[in-house]
């Protein structure tokens, strides 16, 4: 086992209709991390996940999961990964307990090594263990999908849009469980359209667009890529004309505050405040607004989605 849970080298996938979903992708995901895989619809995220899960055959390239090459050791590589899919693909006539036991059997987990009760408790379905899946709410079914992904003790867990369409309570429960699993050493790969979740949860993020990785970096470093910052000022009295350094944009907001957007590489907050004072402005309150992950995402993918 290396330092990486996943190693993808020169991975490509072209479908029979000629569409290229992935184009020579190289990506390494560190073991023990929570890793975000983001991109617009049609960017190639689902194809990559399905290749990792062994559900789609790649056209070319190499995939190693927990040190096992998919082509050389397909059984071991598949056993090292669990996937919580977007779709609610659950047999309606199985109880949660039966669904977990069947899934464990499919992975060859002996009865003595199964953790059905432990998983039911983790996903909050102990009291529904014997209820038919068709009677479960949508949120409970999504919890059951997480349980099914965990039955074979995977080292890597993929969460494909896990909180799409769920309520706040379920979302919080899911992230609590994900953090707990990660603290126990499990590597988590997350795809999501909720960028604030990726920003809060992920150690590192890769953004895929048009079948290629356009950027991969630590979350904090990605946010630092945007040079723009905004100071929001409340002045004691209106100032007819602020004399500001070049390349600073000024916006008068409806609440009476003034927003000054500038580039940190060109001017400092101190210089801005000094310029306001020299223009006769008396600042009574000041706040700053930093760029968020959505700004980074849009700046990298705007106009390029497949």
Automatic annotation (TrEMBL):
InterPro entries in the record: AAA+_ATPase, ABC_transporter-like_ATP-bd, ABC_transporter-like_CS, ABC_transporter_ATP-binding, P-loop_NTPase
Instruction: Cite the ABC transporter domain residue spans from the record.
Output: 6-235
Q: Which residues form the signal peptide?
A: none
Alphabetical list of Pfam families matching this protein? ABC_tran
User: Could you state a single Gene Ontology molecular function term?
Assistant: ATP binding
Q: Please provide the record's keywords in A-Z order.
A: ATP-binding, Nucleotide-binding, Transport
Database matches in Gene3D superfamilies: P-loop containing nucleotide triphosphate hydrolases
Q: Which PANTHER family match?
A: ABC TRANSPORTER ATP-BINDING PROTEIN (PTHR42711), ABC-TYPE MULTIDRUG TRANSPORT SYSTEM, ATPASE COMPONENT (PTHR42711:SF15)
Q: What is the designated name of this protein?
A: ABC transporter ATP-binding protein
Native source organism of the sequence = Roseinatronobacter alkalisoli
């Amino acid at each position: 086992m290396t330092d990486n849970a996943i190693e993808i080298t020169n991975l490509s996938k072209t479908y029979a209709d000629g569409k290229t979903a992935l184009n020579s992708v190289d990506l390494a995901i560190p073991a023990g991390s929570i890793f975000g895989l983001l991109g617009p619809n049609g960017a190639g995220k689902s194809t990559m996940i399905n290749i990792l899960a062994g559900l789609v055959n790649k056209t070319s390239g190499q995939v190693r999961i927990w040190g096992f090459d998919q082509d050389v050791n397909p059984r071991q590589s598949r056993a090292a990964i669990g996937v919580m899919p977007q779709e609610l693909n659950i047999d309606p006539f199985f109880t949660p307990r039966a669904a977990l036991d069947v899934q464990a059997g499919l992975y060859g987990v002996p009865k003595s090594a199964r953790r059905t009760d432990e998983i039911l408790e983790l996903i909050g379905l102990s009291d529904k263990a014997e209820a038919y899946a068709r009677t479960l709410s949508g949120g409970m079914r999504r919890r059951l999908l997480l349980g099914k992904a965990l039955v074979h003790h995977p080292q890597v867990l993929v969460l494909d849009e896990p909180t799409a369409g769920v309520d706040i309570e379920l979302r919080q429960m899911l992230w609590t469980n994900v953090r707990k699993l990660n603290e126990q050493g499990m590597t988590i790969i997350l795809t999501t359209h909720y960028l604030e979740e990726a920003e809060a949860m992920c150690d590192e993020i890769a953004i895929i667009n048009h079948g290629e990785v356009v950027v991969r970096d630590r979350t904090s470093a990605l946010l630092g890529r945007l040079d723009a910052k905004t100071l929001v000022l409340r002045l004691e009295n209106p100032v007819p004309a602020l004399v500001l350094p070049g390349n600073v944009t000024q916006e008068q907001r409806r609440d009476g505050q003034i927003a000054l957007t500038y580039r940190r590489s060109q001017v400092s907050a101190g210089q801005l405040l000094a310029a306001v004072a020299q223009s006769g402005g008396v600042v009574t309150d000041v706040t700053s607004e930093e760029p968020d992950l959505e700004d980074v995402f849009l700046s990298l993918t705007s106009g390029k989605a497949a």
